[in-house]
Design a protein that fits this description.
Chain lengths: 200, 200
């Protein structure tokens, strides 16, 4: 039986950066498939009655979060620099990752977008930033951007976000292994352990 | 130089239970002193503009929290049963732990109170529950309870809670190592690592 973890994330989520950037190394020794699934976290927050990221309503927790992400990034040897704008519009890269979910370059693309935002303070809501990333990866923006902006992709991302909401997801990253939800970068190892034990 | 971690907790906090129950094992191999410091977390929540535990305002996150605590307790081989009442008044055991912060039985007392609430669904806001715990530990409630309820102890717990607030604590458990705050049972190992490295 195929072992699989669904990793739900948002490009605007700092702990999603940590999880997506390290997941390949963490599963390297196991025979587990990781599906990277972008969602519009803001839409889930709205459904839960929150106007935006719950961090914004809690300045003290927000200040702590940046300290914590910085320490965690250092622990994992990941580049990090606190972005000046937070949160940020992440719909364009999310649509690209939705439209090209099977592309061999998906994982690398996600990491490049996360690093642009969380390590180099780039405005990933600006299509030019995303175009530049695609070009640096030797991909053709003229081919990719129209498909990412198609009605089909928009509907697809909306549907996936609704499904994530149905799975009781309330933050990112979230890992789904069979019927179990694990929330937060800190639970990556537990999600993998649960997946390997095959308790279902 | 003495290495020390200050562990701020509330008896009503499930992740505080996990941290307090496992901290001795985790620091067993290192020369670190752990100070258990009870606070009135509700008072800190009020100062932050929250009426009660932020979990109560977020039913989906609350439901997840119980699943997560159950899994974590299992991972750490700790007894756990979701209590029927949450949160619960924790001021009496907090006052005892304040008044007897230097007692050799403090750590064991804390674990017994946590287990009464989080493993045996006992009402720890009821003085009878606390009296029973003291007796089972061969301690004399007639000696302990009056000192716990003295004005001096009340003032002391209030002062410690204000100090915790000044340290930017916003949840429990929180670990303070020198000037650094680590929040959550998940950060216990990081706090210890930081303490051992002596980066300050």
């Amino acid at each position: 039986m195929n072992k699989q973890i669904d990793l739900y994330f948002d490009f605007s989520s700092p702990y999603s950066y940590l999880a997506v950037a390290r997941v390949d190394d963490v599963v390297a020794a196991c025979d587990i498939k990781v599906r990277l699934i972008p969602v519009v976290l803001g839409a889930i927050f709205n459904r839960l009655g929150w106007q935006s990221s719950p961090f914004l309503a809690q300045p003290r927790k927000l200040a702590y979060m940046w300290q914590d992400v910085k320490r965690q990034a250092k622990k994992y040897s990941l580049e990090f620099e606190q972005p000046t704008q937070f949160p940020i519009g992440s719909i364009l890269p999310a649509r690209i990752a939705t439209a090209f979910s099977d592309a061999p370059w998906l994982h690398d693309f996600c990491i490049q977008v996360f690093k642009a935002y969380f390590a180099r303070n780039k405005d990933i809501s600006n299509p030019e930033t995303i175009e530049k990333i695609l070009k640096q990866m030797d991909l053709d923006p003229q081919e990719i951007l129209p498909r990412a902006s198609s009605q089909e992709t928009k509907n697809q991302l909306k549907l996936i976000t609704e499904q994530a909401d149905g799975l009781q997801i309330f933050g990112a990253p979230s890992f789904i292994v069979h019927d179990q939800l694990f929330w937060g970068d800190d639970r990556l190892e537990d999600a993998i352990e649960f997946c390997l034990r095959g308790e279902h």
